[in-house]
From TrEMBL:
Chemical reaction(s) catalysed: Hydrolysis of (1->4)-alpha-D-glucosidic linkages in polysaccharides so as to remove successive maltose units from the non-reducing ends of the chains
Name under which the protein is recorded: Beta-amylase
Keyword Ion transport: no
PANTHER family tied to this protein: BETA-AMYLASE 1, CHLOROPLASTIC, BETA-AMYLASE 6
Source organism (scientific name): Musa troglodytarum
Length: 387
């Protein structure tokens, strides 16, 4: 006999229904790992259910769960939350959030990386993304330490991997019951697969071109090795790409005529920089697939919608973020292929639109960008449009 619920589910499927998930507040579990204001929360969940919402999305913060020490995971508050969500008849999309919450202008909540990770950063600040003049960004660990066993013997990728395995082990009942339908794997700052090239906390404002972020000692060393292997030991990381709020034409790197980005040296660097990002996503999604092997859920990853300077030949802002996309070079196809290899949905985010005058000055192309990426993504249902 079919229950009314499963009949309703069938109808939704037949109608090519796109489920509606609502994001829970960033601090639904407090920074001290407590599920606060439970009655209010339950009331809100009931309202969502009554409004025919399918489920909720929630950030599962690394900085909260593994706060007490390496491999000391405390899932109890998240379990309480998930239990309440289940009781109210909602589903869950869980986000593995390996980045810091807050630190950008207007951020209400502050959840740094775990203390013991930041302790490593006290003696070795090169674990963080670094700009050319040496400013560190503590939002997320640099790709440079992905394979460095400097966290009490573990590499950064192993830290992410162990966290996801612990999640699976401790949430097995919610996974088996189909309550958790999606896992979005955080792959960088703001959870997005990108470099932190446009940090507001460091003074970036729209539509600045941003900066490359590969000047920590680990990435520098890797670049030297890779350039040497390619027969160019004399090549260094770019020193002509300007600063956060420059216009492309103000820099030698992005100049229209003979810009470095068009030279052999420039394209070697851009290939290297964007490949590092791809390999980063590849490794973590590999770990996610291993952790969630046998679970009936969808993996998802977020890619940032960088639309400013999209209509300029140099695509400067996309390049600094790690998307090697030019008019004659599709930088998103490789990303979409990498995600597809891991059966992960591409979830494409667009920062909120500014007024059209700004968009014109910034040679911005949000609609064109969304069109390009929706062709790559294939499955439109996983994509968010700019509005
Ligand atoms: C690096 O970051 C600092 C601090 O925000 C900023 O002042 C500087 O312009 C950035 N870039 C370079 C190349 O110095
Ligand atoms: C660009 O390079 C060409 C050949 O190297 C040179 O003739 C030309 O003057 C350069 N243009 C500019 C604007 O630097
Ligand atoms: C993709 O992102 C949007 C907006 O953040 C969200 O509503 C949607 O649930 C996400 N999908 C997945 C599978 O994470």
């Amino acid at each position: 006999m079919q229950t009314a619920d499963s009949l309703a589910d069938k109808e939704k499927m037949l109608a090519n229904y796109v489920p509606v998930f609502v994001m829970l507040p960033l601090d639904v579990v407090s920074v001290s790992n407590v599920l606060e204001k439970q009655e209010e929360l339950r009331r809100q969940l009931r309202q969502l259910r009554a409004a025919d919402v399918d489920g909720v999305m929630v950030d599962v913060w690394w900085g909260i769960v593994e706060a007490e020490g390496a491999k000391c995971y405390d899932w109890s508050a998240y379990r309480e939350l998930f239990h309440m969500v289940e009781e109210e008849g909602l589903k869950l999309q869980a986000i593995m959030s390996f980045h810091q919450c807050g630190g950008n202008i207007g951020d209400a909540v502050d959840i740094p990386l775990p203390r013991w990770v930041r302790d490593v950063g006290e003696s070795d600040p090169d674990i963080y993304y670094t700009n050319r003049s040496g400013t560190r960004n503590r939002e997320y660990l640099t790709i440079g330490v992905d394979d460095q066993p400097i966290f009490d013997g573990r590499t950064a990728v192993e830290l992410y991997s162990d966290f996801m395995k612990s999640f699976r082990a401790n949430m097995a009942d919610f996974l088996d019951a189909g309550i958790i339908t999606d896992i979005e794997v955080g792959l960088g700052p703001a959870g997005e697969l990108r470099y932190p090239s446009y940090p507001e906390a460091q003074g970036w404002v729209f539509p600045g071109i941003g900066e490359f972020q590969c000047y920590d000692k680990y990435m520098k060393e890797e670049f030297k090795e890779d350039a040497t292997m390619a027969g160019h030991p004399e090549w260094d990381l770019p020193d002509d790409a300007g600063e956060y709020n420059d216009k492309p034409t103000k820099t030698k790197f992005f100049a229209a005529k003979n810009g470095t980005y068009l030279t052999e040296k420039g394209s070697f660097f851009l290939t290297w920089y964007s490949n590092k990002l791809l390999m980063h996503g590849d490794q973590i999604l590999d770990a996610a697939n291993e952790a969630f092997l046998g679970c009936k859920l969808k993996l998802a990853a977020k890619v940032s919608g960088i639309h400013w300077w999209y209509k300029d030949d140099n695509h400067a802002a996309e390049l600094t973020a790690g998307y090697y996309n030019l008019n004659d070079r599709d930088g998103y196809r490789t990303i979409a292929r990498m995600l597809a290899r891991h059966d992960a949905i591409l979830n494409f985010t667009c920062v909120e639109m500014r007024n059209s005058e700004q968009i014109r000055r910034a040679k911005s192309g949000p609609e064109e960008l969304v069109r390009q990426c929706s062709m790559e993504g294939g499955d439109r249902s996983g994509m968010r449009k700019c509005s």
